[in-house]
Amino acid sequence: MALSGVDLRLARGQVYVLLGPNGAGKTTLIRILAMLEQPSAGHVRIAGVDARRRPVEARRLIGAVLHQSLLYGDLTAEENLLLYARLYDLDDARKRVREALDGIGLGRRAGDPVRTLSRGMRQCLSVARAVLHRPHVLLLDEPYSGLDCRAAHYVSRTIERAARGGCAVLLTTHELDRGLRVADRLGILSGGRMLAEMWAREVSPVALRRLYAGALADV
Amino acid sequence: MSTDVWRKAWVLVGKDLALEWRTRESFLVMLLFGAIVGAILGLAFELRAGGAGEVAPGALWVALAFAGVLGLGRSMAREEEDGCLEGLMLAPVDASCVYLAKVAANALSMLGVGLVLLPLFSAFFGVNLLRPGLLVVLLLGAAGLSGVGTLLSTMVAHMRGREALLPVLLLPTVVPLVIGAVRATAGMASGQSLSAVATWLRLMAVFDLVLGAAACLLYAWVTEG
User: Fold this and answer.
1) Would you place residue A175 in the very low, low, confident or very high pLDDT band (cuts 50, 70, 90)?
2) What is the pLDDT of residues A81-128, one digit of tens each?
3) CA B116-B30-B43 angle, 5° bins
4) Which of B86, B92, B225 lies at the smallest CB-CB distance from A38?
């Protein structure tokens, strides 16, 4: 079983960082919350909407960034975002797409096919796609992996903006320092179980490292 | 089905056609394959002198069915690249909407290939396949191949040996459709009217509706687990 007994509540405007080693179950949890996988037991509620009973409605409330970009390489950056804007029935789709592209510094590359963009640019575009419809919950699976400082900055800024706008953010990472920097609350997942949860303001980087090592050693 | 489903399906069809227009990889591969099959069969049977009318419809639909397999595989591979299908599944879009859009886009590609193959097969086999009524047969055939093929190509997308599995699963399933298409095409090639081949057209239409509806219902199960 990939996950067992995980009970996670995200509050509006909260950035929850889920730490854990490879194979801890972080991606499985994100995929279940994004309704890409069905749990064998338990349930997911997004802002009171039961994800299993009303999946289309629940999806409207979620934005997700997964390991893959979820973008069509042969469509331009603008076309990709426009496609999603139309699927989410957004008003002023073109204006919002333009703003999103400018916000991640890709305004001048809007007409370029996605496959010609760098890894960092694609990841930024993927984050822009996930927040385009202003979701209630933003799920990010290892959003910083393989990013340079500039791209990581754009990703962090987008997360901060989303949280300030009342979005609950769940972010997985195995980079403790970065996780601590962006988190309001932290959880340590290993072997499919939630080993510890804490508030970021109550833990120092050193204490977190010690806690993390201790939690993993106990598994 | 709500207007929202049709509207979003249209958005997705537009996306597929834009992708195909930009790369033309599916269409060209299907067309080239169909033309090669026609040329080989035409040469192999050397039936210009007599009996070509009986072989040409079968050859045409064999070529279209196999070319369709290539197109369906490529179409699904495009959705699998960078997790694009998962991206669609994350959006507030019903799985039936994604299915209908893929069916329509795949069917349009097959229809386009069929329209180009008709004059080519007329030339290869020395039989007149350029009859307006054949457009109906092509439309029903493309819709049926695409309807079943879209579901099966999604089912095998994550399996090992999917390139081999798709034709193994698809071709036996579409035997009734291909029989109807061959008989209707043969009738029309010999100068019969649409009403004279109505039985075969009805068979194709029933196949399209029944299997299309079943595939549409199953698509959510296939994509959402």
Assistant:
1) confident
2) 999 999 999 999 999 999 999 988 899 999 999 999 999 999 999 999
3) 70
4) B225
CA B212, CA A44: separation in Å to the nearest integer?
A: 32
Strands A49-50 and A168-173: unpaired
Residue range of the domain that includes B219: 2-223
Question: Distance between CA A133 and CA A114 in Å, rounded?
Answer: 20
CB-CB neighbours of A32 under 10 Å? 20
Question: B43 CB near a chain A CB, below 8 Å?
Answer: no
Residue with tokens 């640019």: A121
The whole-angstrom separation of Cα A205 and Cα A178 is 10
Q: What is the number of domains present in chain B?
A: 1
Which of B8, B82, B224 lies closest to A70 in CB terms?
B82
Nearest-neighbour CA in chain A from B225: distance (Å) = 7
Its ipTM equals 0.89
Of residues A56, A60, A83, nearest to B11 (C-beta): A83
Q: Mark yes or no for CB contact A72/B84 under 8 Å.
A: yes
Indicate the pTM of the whole model: 0.89
Q: Which residues contact B55 (CB under 8 A, 6 or more apart)?
A: B41, B45, B47, B125
Cα separation of B147 and B212, whole Å?
5
DSSP string, B39-59: HHHHHHH--TTTTHHHHHHHH
Q: Which residues of B are less than 8 Å from A87 in CB distance?
A: 8, 11-12, 88, 91-93
For residue range A22-71, what is the model confidence (pLDDT) as tens digits? 888 999 999 999 999 888 889 899 999 998 889 899 999 999 999 999 99
Contact A88/B90, CB-based, under 8 Å? no
Distance from CA of A209 to the nearest CA of B (A): 34
The Cα of B18 is separated from the nearest Cα of chain A by a number of Å equal to 8
